[in-house]
Amino acid sequence: MTEKSTDVYLGMGAIVHEGGVAFRVWAPHADAVFVKGTFNNWSESANPMKAEEHGTWYTDIPHAKVGDEYKFVLSNGNQKLERMDPYARQVTNSAGNCVIYDPKVFDWEGDRFELPPFNELAIYEMHIGSFFADSDKKPGDFDSAAEKMDHLKRLGVNAIQVMPVAEFAGDYSWGYNPANIFAVESAYGGPDGFKKFIREAHQRGFAVIQDVVYNHFGPGDLSLWQFDGWQENGKGGIYFYNDDRSETPWGSTRPDYGRGEVRSYILDNVQMWLEEYHVDGLRFDSTLYIRTIDGSEGNDLPDGWSLMQAINEKIRAYSSHVISIAEDLRSNEWITKELSENGAGFHAQWDANFVHPVRDAVTVADDSARSMDVIRNAVQFKYENDAFRRVIYSESHDEVANGKARVPQEINPDDPTGVFAQKRSTLAAGLVFTAPGIPMLFQGQEFLEGDYFRDDVPLDWDLNTEFSGIVRLYRDLIRLRLDQKNQTRGLCGQFLNVFHVDEAEKVLAFQRWDQHGAGDDIIAVFNFGNAGKTDYVIGLPAKGIWKLRLNSDTKIYSKDFEGLFSNDTEGFEGGKDGFDFHGSVNIGPYSLLIFSQERNGNH
To answer: What is d(CA 183, CA 388) in angstroms, rounded to the nearest whole number?
Structure first.
């Protein structure tokens, strides 16, 4: 806020106004605070700040302006401390200077984008630094990533989930080590670079979901550490717990969720992404370590739980067109329970009940080790009886690093682009786009990007050409999932019936629907075995012709595929699989078929 009250401007950090720039910082244990910068030749005494109530310090500098660099200088007893502004919107780098930035002047060109309904989302997880780098001497940035939006448009996804872009130590990082949570990474292009990226994404029809990290800060280049010189037990001071609650797997830097100023700091950051960056959603890293002390259920951190509730209350109050996604991975239904039920209030959560069994099913070498019951359970799992409270995927940044590789590499380390890797990795993708849930891909998955994810190794875009057929298969799956031809509405629907589980033949089939009927009900048939099936009989929910919408074994997707002929099937009277009708299908090895009936008047 920059409203003026008795000549004092409200807000934190550097507050740009018509008559200059005001500064406010929270430092309750400081004896004195000064601002130094390019506006006063970096003088450590020219601009003292005045102590306010509640531990904040304030000054107004008429000749300071946007673009000036600055820092705070604090004294506490014998300590003299130079600190970056915790609320700085722009920095030269994570160990450099803050830059005065006016968040109100960017031209959004009338941006009024609205997130699609949750059941019509298809998410693409992207790491800006490695998605597309136009130089081997620096990481990719927002501009280079935007150059590949044509690819994403052809692919058909409609939401880009961006791995964390808050300023981090160094130029190469996954982003889960935030040094300055209000500043956008300088190596990526800073705040205006990100706003341009989001504006263009919205113009191209993509929502942008921002990954944020509140379970810990840093630990590198962390100016917040012992910010005003106070600490207990050698811990981090005012922004952090100063006892055993500070400990996380990433260092002793868990924020003090119970301290009002720290809660406001995090809530203000949420508000910044929504208001100043127009993001359409937030994905929250490792909420397990916000709500528990050590990741153990029962060793709860009530401050963290109430903070998550406060965050989601703020998000809901801001807009009904924003999605809040938790990465918790403990199958805890309370994460996505409503706030009115004392749940955490997230709209959706990443689902370990899907990714782990599905990856296991397609990476194990021996067909006999693939359990159709396990896959059925993965497909039909729900939180709160709502299909779209979970995000489902076979690859994410976590699943393709930390000792694990991409799915094709896990399938066949010696031949990660061979037929088995192609077949079984796309079989997993077929489940992602046909099972109930919000589907998500990880960058490069669509063209068999190999090995494991690293922040300093860009995607190999030559693979996009080499495996253009696999890209087409992903594109066709996404088009069907989003019902772009008005013939597969059931894939956007809540309802599921896994009606056929054949352990001996390794075949699984299920029905999805929204309202029922032609063009709505879909039948998905999966062959998890290395032998094609001809005239294989399954039940069908209605008589008449069921049109084949996708056959993943066709050679248009890969010359290495068998290309077993499959066609429409017909529902004949005679009970099977709990239905009154049945039909026969041909399905290739490690393949997927999708059927639906034709809507009247469509061909």
So the answer is: 32
CB 67 within 8 A of CB 100: yes
DSSP letters, 454-505, are -TTS---THHHHHTHHHHHHHHHHHHHHTTTTSS-GGGGSSEEEEEEEETTT
- Per-residue pLDDT at 477 exceeds 70: yes
Domain boundaries along the sequence of the chain: 4-83, 122-218+282-298+324-338+347-481, 489-596
Q: How far apart are CA 393 and CA 380, in angstroms?
A: 14
Let me know: does 359 contact 406? Beta carbons within 8 Å. Answer: no
Give the H/E segment covering residue 26: strand 20-26
d(CA 364, CA 27): 55
Cβ atoms of residues 354 and 392 within 8 Å: yes
Question: Residue holding tokens 């399954």?
Answer: 538
502, β-bridge pairs: 507
pLDDT of residue 602: 46
**E runs forming strands in 144-202:** 159-162, 166-168, 178-184
Strand partners, 20: 17
Write out pLDDT tens, residues 354-369.
999 999 999 999 999 9
Alpha-carbon span 483 to 114, nearest angstrom: 19
Q: How far apart are CA 244 and CA 293, in angstroms?
A: 8
Task: Give the C-alpha separation, 511 to 521, whole Å.
Answer: 7
Element (H, E) at 145: helix 142-146
Q: Which amino acid is at 66?
A: V
**Residue 39 pLDDT:** 98
Number of neighbouring beta carbons within 10 Å of residue 386 = 15
Decide if 396 contacts 125 (C-beta within 8 A): yes
- Considering only CA atoms, give the Rg of the chain: 27
User: What pLDDT shows up at residue 6?
Assistant: 53
Segments in 207-333 forming alpha helices (H): 260-275, 288-291, 302-318
Please, are residues 131 and 145 in contact by the beta-carbon 8 Å criterion?
A: yes
Q: pLDDT value at position 451?
A: 86
Average pLDDT over the chain reads 97
Residue type, 588: G
4-83 domain in CATH 3.30.1330.60? Answer: no
Q: 489-596 in CATH: which number?
A: 2.60.40.1180
Q: What is the DSSP string of 506-522?
A: TEEEEEEESS-STTT-E
Q: Work out the burial of residue 382: count CB atoms within 10 Å of its CB; fewer than 13 is exposed, 13-18 middle, 19 or more buried.
A: middle
122-218+282-298+324-338+347-481: in CATH 3.20.20.80 = yes
In this predicted model, what pLDDT tens digit does every residue of 79-137 receive, in sequence order? 999 999 999 999 999 999 999 999 999 999 999 999 999 999 999 999 999 999 988 88
C-beta separation of 491 from 434 below 8 A: yes
The reply to whether domains 4-83 and 122-218+282-298+324-338+347-481 share a CATH topology is no
Phi, psi at 219, each rounded to 5°: -90, -10
Do 174 and 397 touch, CB atoms closer than 8 A? yes
For residue 229, what is the DSSP state?
S
Neighbours of 564 (CB within 10 A): 17
